[in-house]
Design goal:
33% of the residues lie in helices and 16% in strands. It has 365 residues and is an alpha/beta fold. Bound molecules: pyridoxal-5'-phosphate. It is an enzyme of class 2 (transferase). One of its GO terms (molecular function) is pyridoxal phosphate binding.
């Protein structure tokens, strides 16, 4: 990457591919000869329609999204979906199941409590969110309207490697994929709804992608605000009101770039390689660095670790920043360090981090 850029390990908003940023810069004030920036276009004009349609087509190609699913580009972040999901899928008296593997799953569960009868069927809290249960031991409610999971817990670095089979009568699995969206292939047909804030793997903040099986649309509770009603957005192809136009355009450029790299099979290979060298460095440090997460469910995207000598953490972060590796401080709720290594983090960034970690250890062990 360019000399004037840092390696940004932030959890989101996060680093974006340099070639995507450069492409956006090159057409910033005159998009493909139309004389306007994407920021200035009517969302109903032919130029923007071509942008949003291509973004959707490319995302469908990337994730192999079946015809029976709608793709929506919304606002409000993944947090708004915590409310939209129960409002659209349940009546107030309906039970729903939540599997809580970290802070985000917990937030989703708590928001759902306002709109239906949400239950936690498993929580990793007593293990400080370092585990995912074996699916056989889950006691799912057969009357639940859906089973909700957070596919990758951004703060705790816990990621589902396979998905539970929903045992509820409608067999609906709902997943918050904010922090591992488009980082690997996913069988969309296993899910009722997948939602994701864009600002980790696929674009800037301000866009939330919702992929929903079409037969689940149209049952919103009467109190549902129009902006949270999937039917309104699906009928209007995400153009009921003014969408986050520039963000959608940026996501489109990222989708194009992911396809050009060979699609999600290739992306997953790169992500595995990056995660492998980082976890290996932690595990082979003789306890100098430690990652608390169960090895079988360690995230390819967010790698939390602590220093045995915790008083060195501030020094670690300061020295790393001096070497142009930034945003390595762990979430305020868990402390320590966290390296987020989303799709756009180059292998060279992780290699540099690993070299730095080894050198830091040699100097401070
Ligand atoms: N879910 C997960 C897994 C996240 O990492 C985040 C992080 O920001 C959110 C939900 C909340 O997303 P937003 O800030 O877009 O509302």
């Amino acid at each position: 990457q360019s000399q004037d850029r840092v390696f940004n390990f932030a959890a989101g908003p996060a680093t974006l591919p340099e070639n995507v940023l450069k492409k956006a810069e090159s057409e910033l004030y005159n998009w493909r000869g139309c004389g306007m920036s994407v920021m200035e276009m009517s969302h109903r004009g032919k130029e923007f329609l071509s942008i949003i349609q291509k973004a959707e087509a490319d995302l469908r190609a990337l994730l192999n999204i079946p015809e029976e699913y709608a793709v929506l580009f919304l606002q409000g972040g993944a947090t708004t979906q915590f409310a939209a999901v129960p409002l659209n899928l349940c009546k107030p008296e309906d039970p729903v199941d939540y599997l809580v593997t970290g802070s985000w799953g917990d937030k989703a569960f708590k928001e759902a409590q306002k709109f239906c009868k949400s239950n936690v069927i498993w929580s990793g809290k007593s293990d400080k969110y370092t585990k995912i249960p074996s699916f056989d031991e889950l006691e799912q409610n057969p009357d639940a309207k859906y089973l909700h999971i957070c596919a990758n817990e951004t703060i705790h670095g816990v990621e589902f490697k396979e998905y539970p089979t929903p045992k509820n009568k409608d067999r609906i699995l709902v997943a918050d994929m904010s922090s591992n969206f488009c980082s690997k292939p996913v069988d969309v047909s296993k899910f009722g709804i997948i939602y994701a804030g864009a600002q980790k793997n696929v674009g800037p903040s301000g866009v939330t992608v919702v992929i929903i099986r079409k037969d689940l649309i149209g049952n919103a509770q009467p109190i549902t605000p129009v902006m949270l009603d999937y039917k309104i957005h699906a009928e209007n192809n995400s153009l009921y009101n003014t969408p986050p136009c520039y963000g959608i355009y940026m996501c489109g450029l990222v989708f194009e770039d992911l396809l050009a790299q060979g699609g999600l099979v290739e992306i997953e290979k790169k992500n595995k390689k990056k995660a492998e060298i980082l976890y290996q460095t932690i595990d082979e440090s003789g306890g100098f660095y430690r990652c608390p997460v169960d090895k079988s469910v360690r995230s390819l995207m967010n790698v939390p670790f602590t220093l045995e000598k915790s008083d060195l953490e501030a020094e670690f972060i300061k020295e790393a920043a001096k070497e142009k590796m930034v945003q390595l401080k762990g979430h305020r709720s868990v402390g320590g360090m966290r390296a987020s290594i989303y799709n756009a983090m180059p292998l060279a960034g992780v290699e540099k981090l690993v070299a730095f970690m080894k050198d830091f250890q040699a100097r401070h062990a």
